[in-house]
């Protein structure tokens, strides 16, 4: 997913996407352990998506903290 698409989503939607991507990452690891990998780049994409979402969540938290201090 692109960062612009993720920024349009709510906090609950981002949390759900993190759960989904974490599950996908675990499934990839299980497939890798058994030797049956469907998508070789799946783990990398899942990790990057999780990192993007966490970055956006941190940006939102800092923006709220900054708005609170400005008042």
Can I get a quick summary?
The chain is mainly α and 71 residues long.
Question: Can you describe what's shown?
Answer:
This protein is mainly α and 71 residues long. Helices cover 82% and strands 0% of the residues. The chain is built from three helices and no strands. The protein is elongated, with a radius of gyration of 15 Å. It starts with a helix and ends with a helix. The mean pLDDT is 91.
Helix and strand layout, with pairings?
Layout: H1 3-7, H2 11-34, H3 42-70
Which features characterize this protein?
mainly alpha; Helix Hairpins; 71 residues; 82% helix
Question: What string, H for helix and E for strand, traces the elements in order?
Answer: HHH
* Annotation, overall tally of beta strands: 0
Instruction: Indicate the CATH architecture.
Output: Orthogonal Bundle
- Quick check: average pLDDT? 91
What's the CATH class, please?
Mainly Alpha
Q: What level of helicity do the residues show?
A: over 70%
Number of helices: 3
Low-confidence stretches: none
């Amino acid at each position: 997913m692109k960062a612009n698409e993720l920024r349009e989503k709510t906090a609950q939607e981002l949390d759900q996407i993190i759960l989904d991507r974490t599950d996908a990452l675990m499934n990839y690891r299980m497939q890798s352990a058994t030797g049956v990998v469907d998508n070789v780049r799946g783990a990398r994409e899942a990790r990057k998506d999780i990192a993007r979402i966490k970055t956006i969540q941190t940006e939102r938290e800092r923006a709220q903290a900054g708005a609170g201090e400005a008042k």
